[in-house]
Amino acid sequence: IKVQLKFSILCCFALFTCFLDAVWGQIRYSIPEELEHGAFVGNIAEDLGLDLDKLSARRFRIVSGAKKQYVEVNLENGVLFVNERIDREELCEQSLSCSFHLQVVIENPLELYRVEMEILDVNDNSPSFPWTEFNLDISESAAPGSRFPLESAQDLDVGSNSLRTYLLSVNEHFLLDIQTRSDGSKFAELVLQNPLDREQQSAHQMVLTAVDGGAPERSGTAQIDITVLDANDNAPVFDQSFYRVRLAENAPKGTVVIKLNASDLDEGPNADITYSFSGHAPIKVRQLFSVDSRTGEIKVKGVIDYEKARMHEIYVQAKDKGPSAVAVHCKVLVNVLDKNDNLPEVILTSVSTPVQEDAPPGTVIAVISVMDKDSGENGNVDCEIPHQIPFQLHSSFKNYYTLVTSDFLDRETVGEYNITLTARDMGSPPLFTRKTILVQVSDVNDNAPHFKQPSYTVYLTENNAPGASICSVAALDPDSGQNAYLSYSILDGDIQGMPVSTYVSINSDNGNIYALRSFDHEQLKNFQVTVQAQDAGFPPLKNNVSVNIFILDQNDNAPVIVSPLPHNDTAPSEAVPRSVDPGYLVTRISAVDADAGQNSRLFYQMLQATDPSLFSVALYTGEIRTIRQLMEKDPTRHRLVILVKDNGQPPLSATVSIILSVVDSLPDSQPDLGDLSLSPHHSSNLTLYLIVSLGAISFTFLVAIIVLVAVRRLKVRASNRDTGALPQVYCYKMCLTPESSKSDFMFLKPCSPVLSVQQNNAKSTDYLTSGWSALDRNELSNNRAATPNEVTHVITTGSLCRNNLLIQTEIYAHVTGCKLSLQEGTAPNYSWTPKYTQPHSEPPDYQHNVYIPGTTSGYSTLKLAPRGELDVYNTFSTFGKKKRFISNYEQPFDKDDALISNAIFK
């Protein structure tokens, strides 16, 4: 009853006893060996105070350092159960204490627990003898008290379940003496109690029983056969009955552990000694060592492993070869010395990868456990990682480490890390193990797109095909995945009052920009769009770049003749006096081209002529001059066809026909106008007036001029009605300065017109066209330059020249002449027509296209005044600029442009 009660208590304790060890934060379970699969160990979730509903979500798992997964956890109820049958003898061999460790890993947040599993022994092994029958030879001369060691029984169980005692069957000569070894194991010796008499009984048989201490107990038996021998007087003797030696583990096979020596005083065969293991030597010792029967040397036979057994007891007997030989015994204690022969083991119990590049320092990347089977310093392990990486290794428990970040990561700099972990023991020499941990860095949208260029400049020829690709922009984003996927767009804006989306579009995937319309250089010379690149990250990042698009000119506009213009679909006509000298300026052909650059550079040539030997046209200026003097036999009417051609490729052209009539003389010269001359007082007042006006003019100047013109006209008309005479007036031509493209400011230049007098015309006619004024042949008379004292009343027509088309450095300005008529009894009217006096041989400049007041009229019979003589007519309004004049206004001349007609200044 007591045995059964003890066994029941032990089983209950083994199955249900568990306790929490507060030290180091670990728990410990004790279970018996040989439990079946699914056997209950304990509710680890309750023991750790964990929420059952979160075990799976937090990736609750058990990591074992053993080769087999002996236990497992049911994540639904938190029960720890036996996963595989545990054989304590296989796991721990003969160790009194048998346990293994588990590590519980829980994530989100990371928690670590250490679990120790103690395996309790179960009496599942019976004691057994190496042989079922032992033979002993005992001399009849053996004295009572003689001892004869018996083979020991082996029991794989430990503790109370191991071998407890031996029993000997009843006999009258022998009894059993049970002794205990240093490790607690027991062995038996047969003691001769009464002398033997071979003659009375030559053999004895007994049964030896080995009994363990289990409940219920187990036993094993062996038969002892004793043969009584004839007497041998002297037995061998060892130098000492106990030997102690040291042996390093992993000693090579054949290494001599010790050489035993026994002596026998007998002679001959009775002194010839043989050595062997005694019956007390365990089987494992016989597997690891061998005894030379002749020399008594004990040698290494197997692998000596300190981690399996730190000490071995070898029992050796010596026996002579004489009759009735008696064996003597000795014990050799072999202490195994540990060597650093085991590499540290590295186990990655948990790895969290990839890790985001914006993870804060201290983020746990991996949980690492290390172990070393060696002992002492040979089993102490230290771990390290390289110092040049943003990671650190922290020690949590003994031989447990966590790999954490020590700094912020940047995936664009390093996308992944191969971290080499080195585990090194403290042995001499030290052994180490290296393990590589791959840590990948996941991307965060922390980089905005950036364009390959700070800005883009595109040159596009006008008249392009709508829908054609004009350029491509490209941006880069060092991020990856969606964070690096870029889309392109054009920001809203206006171009000439129209949305930019009506001009260009962009492919959102590749950045190709397309023209949505055909561009015209004459309408739009350049424009700018802003392209935005945005990634697909969250939140998205973006960047802008400017794209400057310049429209290049094509030669798509033919020259346009602006002077002279046909009247009622008839060719314009000019009168030429028969008495003119060679080089006389007859007229000038003026044309403009809406194109730019070389495409607007014009050339003039004579295409047809009634008499090619009489007239010529200047290549660059379009001036028509006489080649020779006119003769009586020359025709009185000439038709000229002038070709105007630009410098484009291919060139475009226009033609104009002009009729020249040869007359004997021009109309009579103008009357003496000395009374109309400008007095110094008036000139001084005019200069002062101009200075004051120029200082006060603003962007409303044009309106003021128009109002002033209207007021002056009313005054003139009223004066004409009251006095019948014209007031004294001045004629000014308005020209734009080179800076006029930036401002509406204008300069006024006084004109000293050349007047022609007509006696019969009673009406003043204003010509507001952009060409030359056409004069009736009957009204023409000889022209001469009027002096200041000859002018009493002047009415002029001024025009504001606006030309916005830049033709390299040449400026085509167009002047409108003023025609005045004088009739008896009324206010004198004078008509004048500007002519050009630039010599044909000089290179063209702005004076070819602009009439300079104060120069000789083309109708005058006087010689052409040299350039120096013209300077006397320059006034303050020229600002001392006597060189070439360059204007920024480039648009083609339009007769509807703001012409200021009949500008009359008193």
CATH superfamily of the domain at 560-663: Cadherins
Biggest sheet record? 5 strands, mixed
Integer average pLDDT: 75
What best-fitting shape do the alpha-carbon axes yield? rod-shaped
The share of residues in helices is: under 10%
> How many strands in all?
56
Q: CATH class of the domain at 560-663, anyone?
A: Mainly Beta
Rg: 64 Å
Structural class: mainly beta
Separation, N- and C-terminal Cα atoms? 152 Å
Low-confidence stretches: 1-24, 671-684, 723-906
Note the quaternary state here.
Answer: single chain
Main location: membrane
Membrane topology: Single-pass type I membrane protein
GO cellular component, one term: plasma membrane
Signal peptide: 1-25
Describe this structure in words.
The chain is mainly beta and 906 residues long. Among the domains are: 27-120, Immunoglobulin-like, CATH 2.60.40.60; 133-229, Cadherins (Immunoglobulin-like); 237-337, Cadherins (Immunoglobulin-like); 345-442, Immunoglobulin-like, CATH 2.60.40; 450-552, Sandwich (Immunoglobulin-like), CATH 2.60.40.60; 560-663, Cadherins (Immunoglobulin-like, Sandwich). Helix content is 9%, strand content 35%. The protein is built from 8 helices and 56 strands. Strands 1-2-8-7-4 form a 5-stranded mixed β-sheet. A 4-stranded mixed β-sheet has the order 9-15-14-11, with no helix packed on it. It is rod-shaped, with a radius of gyration of 64 Å. The relative contact order is 0.06. Mean pLDDT is 75; it is low at 1-24, 671-684 and 723-906.
